[in-house]
């Protein structure tokens, strides 16, 4: 997964994907005291400066939240906070340089699936005591699967992400299509869209790009499949087992059955979003953070009244498990004052500030009671339903190499779709490649 981008909270986003303006129950209670719930570090940090990295380009919603959090922390500690926004194309290079001993942050936002990688580079400082007491003890333990390494916790979940199917609500209404409850109904809806809108339109867009495994994983997990499991100290690939093969067949079938164009095998979510905004896609798997981009790409033509979300159905019924993505916050190992940096993480991840971070940023809150409130909102329900079954990809620092850099599964799918290999042959080859990458030292 690429580290999640925080969406601009437009009125359209709020009404459709986030439900913020229309669903007051999703708003966290505001404290009269902005430092409520935080540990009191006292004035001993007066005169010190802490550097925080936020990832992506600032937008009004993210900036407003960050300013408020910083103000509360500065009032609490007497320290000053310098916030640096790291544009997405620069994130990997900045982290790499900082891990090598360059100018790094004291605290950083970080994608949850990036924690094993940077921990393996000794870039993150363990902050296990934070989650043992206070609000953070209420965060479900299963959300720390990627953050817990050798019994130490290296980051705290800040906001979670799940995916659902974004669809053209106006097209469904015009064509008399009901929201699909089964995979067969998804296929039927996609074919009907293509019959009316043209074969160049993807009824359900195939994702074969850098984030392809978000779609493939959902389909494979829904069949009971796994990518790889740790057996002793070794990763053992499971790509050739029947359950994974079934999900992989459904995934490649989006193209082989003609629901998505064969000429677009390498498109990722951003590519699909742009086609969706230009009336070339009926459905695809994504999340609420795509909505501002769609509105911009469509020059304002596609807004909330024309769009909707539903949970991706499994073949056997019910929602597929969603990829458990999310953003964490961590203390950098070279932080000048680790105690001060830890205090910042403690404040940012208490119930009030973590819930605000999520709901104001287009993510799901990590606190159970706040998440439960979102389930009551029709606009949020598909994401909450998917998140209830959320799973993570193999928690190994080499996963990014397998899933993105070397695109092991993407290449396997492409070889099948292009007729260069059968499914069994392609998955056997991919299984060997996956094991070799995950087990390398």
Automatic annotation (TrEMBL):
Keyword Transport carried by entry: yes
Signal sequence bounds: 1-31
Keyword vocabulary terms for this entry: Signal, Sugar transport, Transport
GO CC terms: ATP-binding cassette (ABC) transporter complex, substrate-binding subunit-containing
Pfam families for this protein: SBP_bac_1
GO MF annotation: an example: maltose binding
Protein origin, superkingdom: Bacteria
Keyword Manganese: no
Any one of the GO BP annotations: maltodextrin transmembrane transport
InterPro entries listed in its UniProt record: SBP (IPR006059)
Protein family: Belongs to the bacterial solute-binding protein 1 family.
Name listed for the protein in its UniProt record: Sugar transporter
Species whose genome carries this gene: Planomonospora parontospora
């Amino acid at each position: 997964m690429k580290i999640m981008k925080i969406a601009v909270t437009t009125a359209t986003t709020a009404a459709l994907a986030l439900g913020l303006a229309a669903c007051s129950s999703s708003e966290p209670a505001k404290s009269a005291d902005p430092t409520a719930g935080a540990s009191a570090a006292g004035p001993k940090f007066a005169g010190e400066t802490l550097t925080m990295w936020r990832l992506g380009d600032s937008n009004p919603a993210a900036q407003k939240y960050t300013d408020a959090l910083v103000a509360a922390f500065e009032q609490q500690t007497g320290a000053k906070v310098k916030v640096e926004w790291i544009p997405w194309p620069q994130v990997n290079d900045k982290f790499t340089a900082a891990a090598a001993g360059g100018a790094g942050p004291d605290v950083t936002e970080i994608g949850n699936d990036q924690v094993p990688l940077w921990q393996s580079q000794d870039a993150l400082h363990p902050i296990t005591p934070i989650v043992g007491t206070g609000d953070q003890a209420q965060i479900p333990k299963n959300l720390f699967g990627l953050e817990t390494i050798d019994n130490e916790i290296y980051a705290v979940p800040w906001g979670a992400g799940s995916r659902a199917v974004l669809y053209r609500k106006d097209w469904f209404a015009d064509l008399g299509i009901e929201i699909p409850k089964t995979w067969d109904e998804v296929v039927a809806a996609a074919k009907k869209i293509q019959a009316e809108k043209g074969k160049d339109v993807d009824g359900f867009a195939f994702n074969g790009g850098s984030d392809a495994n978000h779609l493939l994983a959902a389909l494979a997990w829904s069949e009971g499949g796994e990518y790889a499991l740790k057996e002793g100290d070794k990763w053992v690939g499971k790509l050739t087992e029947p359950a994974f093969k079934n999900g992989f067949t459904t995934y490649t079938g989006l193209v082989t059955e003609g629901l998505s164009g064969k000429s677009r095998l390498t498109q990722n979510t951003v590519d699909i979003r742009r086609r969706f905004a230009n009336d070339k896609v009926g459905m695809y798997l994504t999340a609420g953070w795509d909505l501002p981009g769609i509105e911009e790409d469509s020059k304002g033509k596609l807004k909330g009244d024309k769009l909707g979300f539903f949970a991706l159905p499994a073949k056997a019924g019910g929602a597929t498990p969603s990829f458990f993505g999310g953003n964490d916050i961590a203390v950098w190992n070279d932080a000048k004052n680790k105690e001060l940096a830890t205090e910042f993480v403690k404040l940012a991840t208490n119930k009030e500030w973590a819930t605000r971070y999520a709901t104001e940023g287009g993510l799901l809150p990590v606190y159970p009671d706040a998440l439960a409130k979102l389930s009551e909102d029709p606009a949020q329900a598909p994401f909450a339903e998917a998140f209830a079954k959320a799973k993570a990809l193999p928690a190994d620092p080499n996963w990014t190499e397998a899933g993105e850099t070397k695109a092991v599964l993407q290449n396997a799918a492409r070889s099948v779709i292009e007729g260069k290999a059968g499914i069994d042959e392609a998955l056997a080859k991919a299984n060997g490649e996956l094991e070799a990458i995950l087990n390398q030292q």
